[in-house]
TrEMBL record:
<dbReference type="Pfam" id="PF13304">
    <property type="entry name" value="AAA_21"/>
</dbReference>
<dbReference type="InterPro" id="IPR014555">
    <property type="entry name" value="RecF-like"/>
</dbReference>
<protein>
    <submittedName>
        <fullName>ATPase</fullName>
    </submittedName>
</protein>
<dbReference type="InterPro" id="IPR027417">
    <property type="entry name" value="P-loop_NTPase"/>
</dbReference>
<dbReference type="InterPro" id="IPR003959">
    <property type="entry name" value="ATPase_AAA_core"/>
</dbReference>
<feature type="domain" description="ATPase AAA-type core">
    <location>
        <begin position="168"/>
        <end position="348"/>
    </location>
</feature>
Amino acid sequence: MITTLAVSGYRSLRDLVVPLGSLTVVTGANGTGKTSLYRALHLLAETAQGRLVGRLASEGGLRSTLWAGPEAISRSVRAGINPVQGTVRKGPVSLKLGFGGEDFGYAIDLGMPSPENPFPLDPAIKIEAMWTGETLRPVAVFAERRGALVRLRTAHSHAWREITHDLSPFDSMVTHCADPADGAELLAMRERMRDWRFYDALRTDPAAPARRRQVMTYTPVLAGDGADLAAAIATIRAIGDRDALDAAIEHAFPGSSLATEADDHYGGVLLHQPGLLRPLGAAELSDGTLRFLLLVAALLSPRPPELMVLNEPEASLHPSLMPALARLVVAASRVGQIVLVSHSDTLIHAIGHEGEVSEIRLEKSFGETRSPHLDASSWVWPKR
């Protein structure tokens, strides 16, 4: 389980370190940095997929994603004594992302590309480190990248082995130096990071893929846009917790039941509701009803991930559905870690009523995202 998330220099997250529990809710007013925190966690997952640099480039590169304020905000500025603060940078341009867990941690430091780089939006990876335990300590590091040099060592040896001297500045050691022969530990950690699951683009619009008939195939993991909803529901009924599925539908829509139908290789979902002479297909469902069914399929996955992150799952949902959603979220957190970003007090209260939850309430101060109500978490960045 991830116990600490650290971000420095990304958008409004000048220097933020927050603790994570088995179920963590991130909340705060609009514009306080909830989405930035979600994106930072997603960027870490993209590192294991080899897409971090490309994702940052698609956001406008470092010039667009870097913290736009001063390197530090002095006490006199915060107190209003000195309203002006110098903006001359003393340290190198740096965007840093990292996490610590119960058994391992990882951090990456990105900077400006070299002047001869033909792709100026692509940041350059300067430093990477992976270690055992929650906090970076020199003796715990088993994989390290400095510039183009990558070196590894096993848990049973203190001797470093140089793996490569010419790793590209846009390639991560997590994707390019993880193999069974030289980097078994790095490979294992990469695969665990690749298992993280994010849901922030479940579509319910009239043209949403979930509203169309789809190929019915074994689907233990719902797609990010919900395109394979019917197959995912059928898979839960076949090998998952069908009782939990029926209970979730009954809790949300009393007297209703959810089924799937297939014609040859294609099928869809059918929602039977009291008072209707026929079930409703996905194309006929309201946005809120369809979104709840998508969340059910995601949270009741027969193959639960080590970490699932949900961004504003309450969108389009009527307040009456929040208790049912909260029950699903709490149940899912008992088999895998859940981080939920929300601005719905109704949902947050319902989750707290169902089980124990860690809350991160973000605030904005001088353009910087802060969480002043949390105790400071221990964190050490690798040095360039």
